[in-house]
Amino acid sequence: MSPLVFPRPLLRLDWSLVLAMLALFVGGLFFIYSASYRAAELPVSPLYQKQLRFGLLGLGAFVAMALVDYRRLRDLAWPLYLIGVLGLALVLVPGVGKKMYGAVRWISLAGMQVQPSELAKLSTILVLARFLSNPARDPGRFSFLVLAFVIVLPPILLILKEPDLSTASTLLGVTLIMLFAAGVPLRTFVILLCGGGLVVGGLLALLFLLPDWVPHLGYVKERIIVFFDPGRDPLKTGWNAIQSALAVGSGGLWGKGYLQGTQDVLGYLPRTVSANDFIFPVIAEEVGFVGSSVLLSLYAVVLFAGLRAAAVAQDKMGRLLAVGLTGLVFCHVFVNIAMTIGLLPIMGIPLPLVSYGGTFVVGAMAALGLVQSVYVRRRL
Questions:
Q1: Which pLDDT tens digit goes with each residue over 337-367?
Q2: How far apart (Å, rounded) are the C-alpha atoms in residues 109 and 206?
Q3: What would the pLDDT profile of 27-54 be if each residue is shown by its tens digit?
């Protein structure tokens, strides 16, 4: 079997996913422009132009991933995983990783700032899909869970070291989703979640007992405190949370109109974050509840298409791969919107296909291309 398929299988693409993906990306371009807009007489940041170029690269990655037979990636899963982990390790090497906004998450490659965590997320999901689909392994055994977490912990710990709590949390959430889809018994899953909740509770308690000089401790502690009390430091650490909630709430039913969002145009939403992590408040303020509902509906189409690909997958690996990649999109959407409306702490995570971000938009489209690879080769 050839690893590439031309051209009739492309007619088997799930066009609902393709159209929803394109609609989200194009809409994102408009709102990235809006997030950069200040006044008619002032120049607009070229972020939307850069996003368009990265989007074209992402479309290439989408088509390439859809054409490649996902079953041929089984043998490449571990090499890609090791490359992803190596990239995460390189970020932490002094002089190699680039520090921006208090975190070291990027490396320079061919003149571009690349975020290795994007490759690490995809390669980890690929390895998990291979491991969890192995018929020789029993999902009911404790060793099944242990080995799954042995796979996912190295990238999670390296990502936490950057520090990037949001991406690490997302990867952990995807792992739990894939374990459930792999057939881990519900009782075991409930015990795992309860045990994880106790561990998290214990770590949070320990967090506030340890001194702030412990590396990255102050960063995490401040995020949690501000979540419960944004007014504690309204002009600094609580600023983004307060202004984001004001932007979302002030949009009302229909919004203030395109380029008319005062929280953004007047700079209350900082320019450094309004085009990426806080793009949703820009959208909600300008197009209101109705426009936000359209945005969420487009994501619902993408997620439903991903689950449909999993349901009709030819084998268990394909099913788990589609579930994992769809879960990745879901976790990003849920965490991003939840943090901007005050349901979760501010963690700094972009909105898939809509937020500005070069490596991120390419990675998101590549992930959806892999979902299409599963769907194209579905059961007849």
A1: 998 988 888 877 899 999 998 889 999 999 9
A2: 39
A3: 999 999 998 888 777 778 889 999 999 9
Say how far apart CA 83 and CA 335 lie, in whole Å.
Answer: 27
Backbone φ and ψ for 306, nearest 5 degrees, come out as -65, -40
Domain ranges of the chain: 8-376
Angle at which helix 279-311 crosses helix 316-340, to 10 degrees, equals 160
| pTM (two decimals) | 0.90
Task: Classify residue 19 as exposed, middle or buried by CB count within 10 Å of its CB (0-12, 13-18, 19+).
Answer: middle
Q: For residue 297, count CB atoms less than 10 angstroms from its CB and return exposed for 0-12, middle for 13-18, buried for 19 or more.
A: exposed
56 contact partners, CB below 8 Å, separation of at least 6: none
Q: Tell me phi and psi for residue 112, to 5 degrees.
A: -115, 150
Name every residue whose Cβ is closer than 8 Å to that of residue 133 and which is 6 or more positions away in sequence.
182, 315, 316, 317, 319, 320
Rounded-to-integer distance, Cα 266 and Cα 269, Å = 8
For helices 165-181 and 116-132, angle between their N-to-C axes, nearest 10 degrees: 20
